[in-house]
Specification:
The chain has 430 residues and is an alpha/beta fold. The protein has 3 domains: 133 residues, Beta-Lactamase (2-Layer Sandwich), CATH 3.30.450; 146 residues, Alpha-Beta Plaits; 121 residues, 3-Layer(aba) Sandwich (Rossmann fold), CATH 3.40.50. The protein is 44% helix and 23% strand. The chain has 17 helices and 17 strands. The strands form 4 sheets. Strands 1, 2, 3, 4 and 5 form a 5-stranded mixed sheet that branches. A 5-stranded mixed sheet has the order 7-8-6-11-12, with helices on both faces. A 5-stranded parallel sheet has the order 14-13-15-16-17, with helices on both faces. Strand 16, helix 16 and strand 17 form a beta-alpha-beta unit. Helix 8 packs across helix 9 and helix 14 runs parallel beside helix 15. It is elongated and about 95 Å long.
Length: 430
């Protein structure tokens, strides 16, 4: 809620600005509606004329850390230091309502080097300020924009754009199996690949730990889909320096935004990304052109790896199996029988085989197998279920067959036997 002291008539605002000009070098009013139009890249000539403050700074476009926009959206005062040639300015912006309409009152004051710092210090400050704004919004590891940049500058923007979320597949496993340096190098590699395919006007943002956000303004749907597929393919072909065993892939969810905010588009893209995670190394774009969709489906089908569901209450066991099998198969995990049944209902017939531990809490492997066979998916009866247990093999084998399982692997699992069973049921099915 705006404070009463920030609500005034135009006459009162002009009187206040006259007083402020005794202290500040420049004092001006910016129409809030015009400022929003500029932020939305509106073709409105009046908006550009009214809000072209960046011409004062000898810039061709608005500052990415525009504090006037920040004041407008947050309805409060903001401040920053800015520089022009060898001069340093203190910049203030204050949200006000004048005759019931939103405005921002901008105030600039040139700082006197004699009263600020000595000449040497002043020069050093100018140098630091030249990179300050960029560092403020850059991820230290990858060099992409950071989440702060998204929150301050991007999420409220409207306009035509392709918006995509990219999630690095199996990222946690890189850290667990190879160390955090491997995870860092994987993220750096992903960013380097993406930069090969984006324009200067595009925005690459590290949205989360292993998630990146791509904003591609004024791109048509066909080029958007093609660009995402190229990025996905190139990442899968690229090795992580120093870690050749790591096989990179990303799952991508994308949408085409029109009049909605980037924040709203991101929410839709996030849903598409989770659909893509079902397959890994996949790009899912909402409402893509049917012809493109069909072409992408054909391409994807050719390279689709069988999806294996690993069910084991031991996290270490699951991670070891993932590490062994991920080069050849897609993997999803469950830590108990209940979660196993939920995953089957979610992924349905996409699951090609289940590796099922027998001894688990909540629901053991026997009951899980029985429930799987009762799931109303047309192929639920046909999905191979391979039991895994450290218990007595003879006793378990009979019980496994009665529960509807197809085969049995004794723990600790022998790699040769594991590969043999998978080949039998996936590569040479009965």
């Amino acid at each position: 809620m705006t404070d009463k002291k920030d609500c005034m008539t135009m006459e009162q605002a002009e009187q206040k600005m006259e007083c402020l000009r005794e202290v500040f070098s420049i004092v001006r009013l910016v129409d809030g509606e015009m400022l929003e139009k500029r932020a939305e890249h509106s073709p409105d000539a009046d908006a550009m004329e009214m809000c072209q403050c960046y011409s004062f700074w000898n810039k061709a476009k608005p500052c990415e850390n525009c504090i006037s926009m920040k004041s407008l959206r947050e309805k409060k005062q903001a401040a920053k230091l800015e520089f022009l040639d060898s001069d340093i300015f203190q910049v203030f912006s204050r949200y006000v309502e004048i005759d019931g309409k939103p405005y921002v009152m901008e105030m600039l004051k040139k700082l006197d080097e004699d009263t600020l710092i000595d000449a040497v210090g002043y020069g050093k400050m100018v140098q630091k300020l030249s990179v300050y704004n960029d560092k403020l919004y850059r991820d230290a590891l990858t060099g992409a924009y950071n989440r702060r940049y998204y929150e301050d500058e991007i999420k409220h923007v409207k306009g035509k754009a392709g918006v995509a979320i990219l999630d690095v597949d199996d990222f946690k496993l890189y850290n667990d199996m190879h160390g955090h340096h491997a995870g860092d190098m994987a993220l750096i590699t992903v960013v380097e690949v993406i930069r090969q395919y984006i324009r200067k006007t595009d925005k690459l943002i590290r949205y989360g730990g292993d998630e990146f956000l791509l904003i591609l303004p004024e791109i048509d749907n066909e080029n958007f889909v093609q660009k995402l597929n190229k990025i996905k393919k190139k990442i899968a072909e690229t090795s992580v320096p120093g870690y050749n065993r790591i096989k990179l892939s990303v799952s991508i969810g994308g949408v085409s935004a029109t009049e909605e905010t980037v924040e709203e588009a991101v929410q839709r893209a996030d849903k598409q990304m989770y659909l893509a995670k079902m397959y890994k190394d996949t790009a899912m774009v909402e409402e893509m052109d049917q012809k493109i969709a069909e072409e992408d489906h054909v391409e994807h089908t050719d390279i689709l790896r069988p999806l294996i569901l690993i069910v084991d209450d031991s996290k270490i066991n699951r991670e070891l199996l993932v590490e062994i099998l991920q080069d050849k198969y897609q993997i999803i995990e469950a830590e108990n029988g209940n979660e196993c049944v939920e995953k089957l209902e979610k992924y349905g017939n996409d699951i090609a085989l289940i590796l099922l531990d027998i001894v688990m809490p909540k629901m053991d492997g026997f009951e899980a197998a029985r429930q799987i066979r009762r799931v109303p998916h047309k192929d639920a009866q046909m999905i191979p279920i391979i039991a895994m247990s450290a218990k007595d093999a003879r006793e378990d084998m009979d019980a496994c067959k009665e529960a509807g399982m197809n085969d049995y692997l004794a723990k600790p699992v022998e790699l040769q036997r594991l590969y043999q069973v998978l080949a039998e049921y996936l590569e040479n099915p009965m």
